[in-house]
Amino acid sequence: MIKKKDKIIYWVATSIIALFEGVMPALTSQSEMAKEGITHLGYPLYFGNALVIFKVLGVLAILIPNVSKRIKEWAYAGFAFDFIFAFISHAAVDGINGETFFPFFVFAILAVSYIWHHKLTNKQQS
Q1: Which of 73, 104, 74 is nearest to 86 (CA)?
Q2: Contact 60, 22 (CB under 8 A)
Q3: For residue range 66-89, what is the model confidence (pLDDT) as tens digits?
Q4: Of residues 66, 63, 65, the one with CA closest to residue 79
Q5: Please, which residues have CB within 8 angstroms of residue 2's CB and are 6 or more apart in sequence?
Q6: pTM for the complete prediction?
Q7: Which domain holds residue 83?
Q8: Pair 17, 114: CB distance under 8 Å
Q9: What is the rounded average pLDDT of the residues 17-35?
């Protein structure tokens, strides 16, 4: 039986990921600040554009209920890699500071979404 609490936890965590990884990048990727951020880390601008496309596709894969389990798993994995490499990039360029660990904070929210996604789909199947 699916509990209302479980749905709320899943949708709050997933909505935060959707905002951070889909909506914000889509709306801000062409701003000067975003372009400076990507070049500051040593990446070419086209990498930032490709990253935004994959983030938006990943968010859609996570949000749309009828997307296959395999695609959802790849989307969650892609976001996990994104956060890990964001940490590495910031640590390598800017050193270790408070901001360096922000990707792990969002990674924790992603983990909540992932865990509760599986809780909800397993309860629906049983």
Answers
A1: 104
A2: yes
A3: 999 999 999 999 999 999 999 999
A4: 63
A5: 120, 123, 124
A6: 0.91
A7: 4-125
A8: no
A9: 94
Residue 2 — very low, low, confident or very high, per pLDDT cuts 50/70/90? confident
Burial of 124: CB neighbours in 10 Å, binned 0-12, 13-18, 19+: exposed
Position 126 confidence tier, pLDDT thresholds 50, 70, 90: low
Token digits of residue 38:
């990507």
- Number of residues that make up the chain: 126
Q: How far is CA 52 from the centre of its chain?
A: 11
CA pair distance 92, 60, nearest whole angstrom? 31
Measured in degrees and rounded to the nearest 5, phi and psi for residue 2 equal -85, 125
Q: Which residues contact 38 (CB under 8 A, 6 or more apart)?
A: 44, 45, 47, 48
For 81, how many CA atoms within 13 A lie in the half-sphere containing its CB? 10
- In angstroms, rounded to a whole number, what is the distance separating the alpha carbons of residues 51 and 61? 15
Mean pLDDT of 35-46: 95
Here the tokens at position 98 are 């408070």
Query: How many domains does the structure of the chain reveal?
Result: 1
